[in-house]
Amino acid sequence: MITGTMFAYYFHCKRHLWLFANHINMEFNSDVVQIGRFISETTYQREKHEIHLDGIAIDYFDRAKNIVHEIKKSDKMEMLHVRQVQYYLYILKSKGVLGTQAIIDYPKLRKRLRVPLDEDSEQFIKDTLSDIEAVLMLEQPPDPVRKKFCRRCAYFELCYS
Description:
Layout: H1 4-12, H2 14-21, H3 31-42, E1 51-53, E2 56-58, E3 60-62, E4 67-71, H4 78-94, E5 101-106, E6 111-115, H5 119-136, H6 156-160
Parallel strand pairs: 4-5
Antiparallel strand pairs: 1-2, 3-4, 5-6
């Protein structure tokens, strides 16, 4: 099963995806991850957090308006966030939950971004799922590809020491 986290990691770093999928988890000691978790846990405090369904963990679902909310610390990787919530909408649609919309909330920035799921996005998700499965089938992790955010990544030492 491809989880929402794995789907996001595909866009972040294929090596990160492979390591995570093979239970090599370095994020337990990451300050960046802890800050993001804190923001998620302290936003929408009156609402039920994290609805789990088929490997996805929706931060908050507004049942009255049929809107998925994903809470993020920063918009630096906004396209990754968009793809992740589109994947959530795709999973919900596959389960018969129709007409759902998504909003990415950036509380620290006081910014909201509406995210649609259209036919092109659905096809992109299907193609991406095939690519993710190919990465997961590799015997060894892909070689590291240095990106500007690597230094802040929890896996940095594992990739570059």
